[in-house]
Design goal:
Layout lengths: L1 H24 L7 H10 L14 H36 L11 H14 L11 H21 L7 H25 L2 H12 L7 H20 L1 H7 L3 H6 L4 H23 L5 H13 L3 H25 L8 H25 L1
């Protein structure tokens, strides 16, 4: 297991490094890859002083203040959504579960749409108004879902999924009602947020997601073995020493917090938490001790390339990131379904 994790981890890190450098060079202002390497190396302590700048100052500004923070944020968002998706699929024992199963995206959307509707983008917490309110309403949604699903501190996975669907549908209706009441300009703002984007997100936004991702991913990785035992059924897992209810609470709560943090910063980005764990599962098998850490890594790569496509396909016009992930994810999901049908027939 450790050898497999090390091998795929090293391969993923190399792919991530190459992807970052290539993505940094692409944009309306094309910057050659050798210059990108030079600019990045120049930022390193001790080594950077030995590098002589042979590029214009504008190129360094574009790399360090515009593209790099966006790329880092994309990697963090991809990692958060992917690792939370792996957590949901493991604890609910449902390969179709994703980070939005419990209605967190709909809850966050209600808070964001409310602020946009009344022009309160910066009125409460300045630039952090929408992220903070969206995170708060997303977590309030989680509380409502758990209240509906829980019976004396316990809940069945089927009840959790059903409660999430019901609450999500109700909150989506509220957002649709807000959209119907507003002018075209406000509607466009709400829809743009609902489709997800990393544009105009600088370094401060990465500091919002990073602590949640660091702590949340560490907790989910620690629960890799109990999630493996969950595949045998809750009763068997309990006989093998797993504290079933505690595991379900912790994994669902941590996964939802990660989702709420990601959605509050960049809006709703679909299919990432659904597709990436499946890809990793195809590569390394069903062991969650491998799936969770590798989902963290390859989820970041997936969102990085999706955002690069969003920037480049119709440049200088930018496609919402959620649209690109849906275009990429839906066909792959259809492939997975057809593959599973063939396996069942065989």
């Amino acid at each position: 297991m450790k050898r497999t994790l090390f091998g795929w981890g090293v391969a993923g890190l190399l792919l991530l490094l190459v992807s970052v450098v290539v993505s940094l060079s692409l944009g309306s202002a094309h910057i050659p890859i050798p210059q990108v390497w030079g600019i990045l190396v120049k930022q390193l302590p001790f080594v950077g002083d030995t590098v002589q700048a042979t590029w214009p100052a504008s190129s360094e500004q574009i790399i360090m203040k515009v593209r790099l923070p966006r790329i880092v944020l994309g990697v963090l968002i991809g990692g958060a959504l992917s690792v939370s998706g792996a957590g949901f699929q493991g604890v609910l024992r449902n390969p179709l579960a994703d980070p939005y199963t419990l209605g967190v995206a709909s809850g966050a959307s209600v808070g964001a749409a409310f602020l946009i509707m009344f022009g309160l983008h910066y009125a409460i917490f300045g630039m952090w108004s929408i992220p903070i309110v969206a995170f708060g309403t997303g977590m309030a949604t989680l509380w409502v879902v758990f209240r509906l699903a829980g019976v004396q501190g316990k809940f069945r996975t089927e009840t959790v999924i059903l409660s999430g669907v019901v609450v999500s549908s109700f909150l989506s209706a509220i957002v649709s009602f807000m959209v119907a009441l507003n002018s075209d300009r406000i509607v466009n703002e709400i829809l743009f947020w609902l489709m997800g984007s990393l544009s105009l997100r600088g370094w401060p936004y990465t500091t919002v997601v990073l602590p949640y991702l660091a702590v949340g991913a560490a907790i989910l990785i620690a629960y890799g073995r109990p999630l493996n035992l969950f595949t045998l059924g809750e009763r068997h897992a309990a006989h093998l020493g797993v504290r079933v209810e505690r595991t379900k609470w912790v994994v669902l709560l941590v996964s939802t917090v990660l989702t709420a943090a990601a959605v509050s910063v960049c809006g709703v980005i679909g299919f990432v938490g659904l597709i990436t764990p499946h890809l990793v599962r195809l590569m390394v098998g069903p062991d969650y001790r491998l799936i969770i850490p590798l989902s963290l890594l390859f989820g970041g790569i997936y969102v990085l390339w999706a955002d690069t496509l969003a920037r480049m396909v119709l440049s200088p016009t930018e496609i919402p990131l959620g649209v690109v992930t849906a275009f990429l994810g839906a066909p792959f999901f259809a492939y997975l379904l057809s593959r599973q049908k063939k396996m069942l027939k065989g």
